[in-house]
Sequence to fold (348 residues):
Amino acid sequence: MKILVAPNAFKGTHSSVAVAQTWAGVLGEKHEIQTLALSDGGDGYLDAIHFLIPELSRRTTLVNGPYPEQRVNADWLWDASNNIAYIEVAQACGLARATQPLRALEATTYGVGELILAAQKAGAEDIYLGLGGTASTDAGAGALRALGWNFVNEAGRDIGQDLTSLNRMIVGGAKPPELNLMTDVTNPLLGDQGAAVIFAPQKGATTKDVELLEARLAAFWLIARDQFNMNLSFPGSGAAGGLAAGLSLTGQAHLGSGFDLIADLGDLEDKMRWADLVVTGEGAFDSQSMMGKATGRVLSLAQSQRKKTAVISGTIAPGSLPLVDFSVALSGRSIREGSVELSGQLGV
Fold:
């Protein structure tokens, strides 16, 4: 059997590259295998791209972490032949980098701006930023600060993190390169499906914190509308705590799909046409998995090509799994044990 192994990351435990290599090692004992490590722009975005383009050089820059007092070494990828940089914003302000306890009101994207500056200094003309997995909900104000912007109140004083007192944005610094914002999140900046309400609770925000963060984002949106005549609450603007909204103010940002980027770089459709069976999975398969997430996108494409499909996940929520031919819920077992079980289901 020809098998395409195309997993997403098992968040917090294994990168998509590690999962793909483990599953391929087991299933490849009896079958022909091709692999594609997926990402939707969040944690593991750099690893997935480096797996596909190993000739890229990995660079490290010391930047601000999720909280103002933190400094972290953040990796990014550099394509010197094409002057392209790949940045995973979670390397700077990711939840995985955040110290405990989580402090949603203090988290900043300042380090993302520092990474953009490092790539610009290297000569980047295009930057592909993977958005996701952040601890921040600052509308990208931190990143804009690093790029040279200032945010002041009615008295002309710097507002710090308190966007509710924002009266004016002062544009500064050099124009950044083209910023391609890679995300598969469609949430807007504001509202019941916005950055604060949907994502801030997992970043340590209490109910009261969520209300304050929503007020901050709304104030940011209002000044952007009045000062620049821009509506920052568009589909996808809530990605990475509103980072997509803030960076759009530069005039250099363009929204794109993290999944589509990886699929194009990895020739997903060609590999799928080759395959008899497509194996995918993630840490937790639930009702959101078929709503734009990488695993759901793979299954939908496989089923449109009438390929057999299999899902291996840490947990599979009842009623969430579409019609697939094979499934394995790990229930505490290792990712290798899951592929062994699938191998057994295939009759080997």
